[in-house]
Amino acid sequence: MQDLFAERLVNLQIHQGIARLDFARLETIDVEKNQATFSPAFRLAMPVDAFMQMAEQFQKVRETIQSQAKDRASTPAAA
User: Fold this and answer.
1) Looking at the domain assignment, is residue 66 inside a domain?
2) Would you write out the chain's pLDDT as a tens digit for each of its 79 residues?
3) Plot region of 9 (φ>0 → left; ψ -120 to 50 → alpha; else → beta)
4) Is residue 1 part of a domain?
5) Which of 38, 34, 31 is closest to 11 using CA atoms?
6) For residues 53 and 55, what is the distance between their CA atoms, to the nearest angstrom?
7) What are phi and psi of 27, to 5 degrees?
8) Per the structure, how many domains does the chain have?
9) Which has the closest alpha carbon to 5: 50, 39, 31, 29?
10) Domain range for 17
11) Helices (H) then strands (E): counts for the chain
């Protein structure tokens, strides 16, 4: 299995039953303008039904992260 790294999803297109997700890597940061420049990293192409399954999994993970953050916020800090 190959590991890929990207810092941002920059585009998502669905056409003729295929979802295409374009990812990018951070190239430079202009501190004066507070601007980042990204360059294309790779494209993930998959059938729409597989994309929908992935979206459902992401939603579950999102809910878990939000629940954990809420639990941490409601727990008093250790003294």
Assistant:
1) yes
2) 999 999 999 999 999 999 999 999 999 999 999 999 999 999 999 999 999 999 999 999 999 999 999 988 888 765 4
3) beta
4) no
5) 38
6) 5
7) -100, -60
8) 1
9) 39
10) 8-73
11) 1, 3
Q: Residue 78 domain-assigned?
A: no
Residues in the chain, overall count: 79
Question: Tokens for 74?
Answer: 């409601």
Output DSSP code: residue 54: H
* Whole-number Å distance between alpha carbons of 72 and 57: 23
pTM above 0.85, yes or no: no
Judged on CB neighbours under 10 Å (0-12, 13-18, 19+), 14 is: exposed
CB contact at 8 A, 23 and 43: yes
In a domain, 3, yes or no: no
- Amino acid identity, position 16: Q
